[in-house]
Amino acid sequence: MKFGVLQFPGSNCDQDAYHVLANVFGQPTRYIWHKDATLGDVDCVVVPGGFSYGDYLRTGAIARFSPAMKAVADHAQAGGLVIGICNGFQILCEAHLLPGALVRNKSLKFICEHVHLRVETTESPFTNACRPGQVLRIPIAHGEGCYFAEPAVVDQLQRENRILIRYCTTDGKITAAANPNGSVDNIAGICNEGRNVFGLMPHPERASEAILGSEDGRRIFESILWTGAAAETPAPARR
Amino acid sequence: MKAKIIVMPKKTVLDPQGKTVKHALESMSFKGIKDVRIGKFIEVELAGRNKAALKKKLDDACHRLLSNPVIEDYEIVIR
Prior knowledge:
The complex is a heterodimer.
Chain A: E1 3-7, H1 14-24, E2 29-33, E3 44-47, H2 67-77, E4 81-85, H3 87-94, E5 101-103, E6 111-119, E7 135-142, E8 146-148, H4 151-159, E9 163-168, E10 187-191, E11 197-200, H5 218-232
Parallel strand pairs in A: 1-2, 1-3, 3-4, 4-11
Antiparallel strand pairs in A: 5-8, 6-7, 6-9, 9-10, 10-11
Chain B: E1 2-9, H1 16-27, E2 40-45, H2 51-66, E3 72-78
Antiparallel strand pairs in B: 1-2, 1-3
């Protein structure tokens, strides 16, 4: 599967994402500069974490207008896969590719720690290699990761099974204490209506090798690869 | 002409900054503070004299960039 990793001035998880896709999973991966108006031949776009344009005004607010993001919107519109991690999630919300917004953590603190996430549905290209209800241990690192959407929007996300992961306890319970940043309904990651755009605050690329303390992030990338493999395998001939 | 734009978090959105500042004011023994909310103030200098047309332009700018309608409300004053 061919991956493209976006680079904005200030991106700092781009190389981690590239490393995991190219070196850990051995996939053809390349960088896409924010000024590029075309993405080239890619199946899945990664909008990485870090900062973008200083995150002036609001996180992701300026990045949204970059030429590359227009190409990402077209890619998403055509059904291509897009995964936005951390600042990437914030950008996807600002670009209206995902509903809601990410605001200051309730504690006002920048939080950098491993958290537990419950896989709420495996019916997505980003979670189909997980078990339903599986608990993943993946780090977060953000100051503005508090997911907010109006109650009607959250209801719709719930109804349409678009909340893919929630912050939970080690044994998979959704509690207020397990919510690190004040996100509504413990939401850590959601997908769009077409299920091909996924935004999440946790960093799966920082949890894809044993030396980093957790390999649970691999499940997310394996799901994407599985989705790609299924698309490339022709349907068996009928007898 | 100059426009002043005030962007505030919506009432339904958590404003931990406002809350923290309220606590700080209270700890300085400021009495009777019911609520504190913190937003942004943006000043824009504009060419042209047509107030209505400028307001319309700024409305569009506020809607698309200067505020995020999901979490913020804005107010424009031109003079």
